Amino acid sequence: MTEPTPGIHHVTCIASDPQENIDFWVETLGLRLVKRSINQDDDGTYHFFFADAEGTPGTSMTFFPWEDISQGKVGSGQVSRTAFRVPEGSLDYWEDRFDDYGVEYDDRIERFGETVLPFRDPDGLPIELVAVELPDDDPTVPWTEFVPESAAIRGFHSVTLWLADPEQTEDLLETMGFERVGTESSPGDTPGDERTRFAAEGPVGKYVDVLPTIEGGRQGHGTVHHVAFQTPTDDHQMEMRDAVRSLGLRPTQQIDRHWFRSVYFREFGGVLFELATSGPGYTSDEPLSELGERLVLPGSFGDRRDEIESQLTSVTVPRAEQADADD
After folding, report:
1. Where does residue 279 rank: exposed (0-12), middle (13-18), buried (19+ CB within 10 A)?
2. For residue 4, which of 58, 71, 124, 127 sits 20 to 30 Å off, Cα-Cα?
3. Is the residue at 1 inside a domain?
4. Which residues contact 203 (CB under 8 A, 6 or more apart)?
5. Considering the chain, what is the average pLDDT of its residues?
6. Does a structural domain hold residue 3?
7. Tens digits of per-residue pLDDT, 13-33?
8. Looking at the 3D structure of the chain, how many domains does it have?
9. What is the pairing mode between strands 272-276 and 223-230?
């Protein structure tokens, strides 16, 4: 038997303006920029990692700011929604904050007994906050520079997959260790069909929801590039890779991404999945206190720092003291 995945490791999305992206995810949403780097497959593009205070697995929302591509559209074969956990009772705070910052949000909805607040980032990326009761031993560490601990985002809750024919993907999720936990009608979703929920065993990013739809989409600004699932060790990852291959899919060889090691494959509906190890982690090349402060160029990219930096737009990270002074 393959050791089951604990849940989501990170979600990577496509943005447009890099400064606008940093401002929103750091100042408006209160996440910490834990790594400022480059897309290792396109070194003229930033790769930003936003997470909790320590970059705990299951908390990283990452972005490629590709400024020159077009606006995307969410459709079949994509992650249609990314949801984050927030403490129970904090949604009033978030609605007030969104009003103050001019964030577009929708009415709250109830889903599987939880209250969900849908909204969008500046590129139109669909996001949700889900109010949950956090356990005493929750592994996430809130970042509180802009948002108080009582409301701070505490890692992923779930992703929603839009799929033309979900059956094979549902079998894949079960192979990966997710358990089917229920189905219900899905208010607030464009397809309007029934949502099926699968749960992993870990405390963070444990849910994947599946919705059938044939609605067409295209990748671009405001869409998810891929979703990564935790395979904490190399052995675990290789076991999962073998299990995925046994279903007829074609995972890559392991690729060293410096802060974790990765295997990629497209699942049956077309969503790009990644398997990611827990280590070495974001503090492998920077002290915890300095995460995100400088551009990190892993491996041989460091030999080309001047060339790479000359291709990148200059950005600054918001600071709470500066924001207070501007007010």
Report:
1. middle
2. 127
3. no
4. 6, 7, 58, 135, 137, 138, 139
5. 95
6. no
7. 999 999 999 999 999 999 999
8. 1
9. parallel
Is 12 a domain residue? yes
CA distances from 161 to 67, 136, 197, 273, 311 (A): 25, 30, 10, 11, 34
168: pLDDT confidence band, cut at 50, 70 and 90?
very high
Q: Is residue 314, in this structure, part of any structural domain at all?
A: yes
Structure tokens at 302: 């460091």
Q: What is the CATH classification number for the domain harbouring 196?
A: 3.10.180.10
Residue 26, both tokens: 């750091």
User: Residue 16 is part of which domain span?
Assistant: 8-326
Residue whose C-alpha is closest to residue 171's, from 274, 253, 267, 277: 267
Question: And the tokens for 294?
Answer: 């400088």
Question: Does the pLDDT at position 92 exceed 80?
Answer: yes
Q: Distance (Å, rounded) from C-alpha 240 to C-alpha 228?
A: 13
How does residue 193 score in pLDDT terms, banded at 50, 70 and 90? confident
Cα separation, 277 vs 257, in Å, equals 10
